[in-house]
Amino acid sequence: METIGTIKEIWRYPVSSLGGELCSDVLVGRKGVEGDRQYALFDPATGSVAAPEKDARWRPALFLNSAIDAEGARICFPDGTWHHVADPRLPPMLSDHFGFNVAVGRYMEPDQRTVSLPQVSNRYGVAPIHVVTTASLKKLETFVPLARIDRRRFRPNILVDAKTDAGFAEMGWIDETVHFGASMCKITEPAKRCGMTLVAQPGLDEEAEVLRSIVRHAGRSLGVYCDILKAGMIHVGAIVERDA
């Protein structure tokens, strides 16, 4: 096998469209990072799931954060307060944050804690894992020198510190088998980028030139999607290899 980098960061996003949490290690199962994108915010009046990239009224979602503790998934507000997803106090607080009625739904089957949450349509059916490399971020910086190219704009599950700085490195891995620690994946397709890459979020201003540059120089793609061939634990610092 050929070493192509190391795992620099692992991200999990328990509630889709919200900020996520950095993990030092995590189980990658057949459906992806354990605990990733299990829940979503939605409008009870229409049933529509939050889509900040399409609808500006959902953009306050980027100023909320989500994480998992011993009691399950929870949401953090800008003032630092946390509430678990099934907390009955949460919907009124979300509605105040957005300025219209908002509730939490689940993508998966309920457990004892979340049986009260309705099931909603999953917006994330492309692939279980999303990978971005440091090489791609550095390349993008050459096209947008005045903008801060922060990996948070792209919501990767795995940020790979690539062995090469040449171009958009992960595009050369498509259709190949890549090993992330104990997990083995098939790189399936480029990740097409949307308006989420340019909108403001904590510590990052709105920057339209980020998406414009990806469209001009990378066919609108940055990062890749993966299917899971072998489940296993992954950890920060693990070697990333591809089959020779």
UniProtKB/TrEMBL annotation:
Lineage start: Bacteria, Pseudomonadati, Pseudomonadota, Alphaproteobacteria, Hyphomicrobiales
Annotated MOSC domain residues: 87-243
InterPro entries (UniProt xref): MoCF_Sase_C, Pyrv_Knase-like_insert_dom_sf
Entry protein name: Uncharacterized protein YcbX
Organism, as annotated: Neorhizobium huautlense
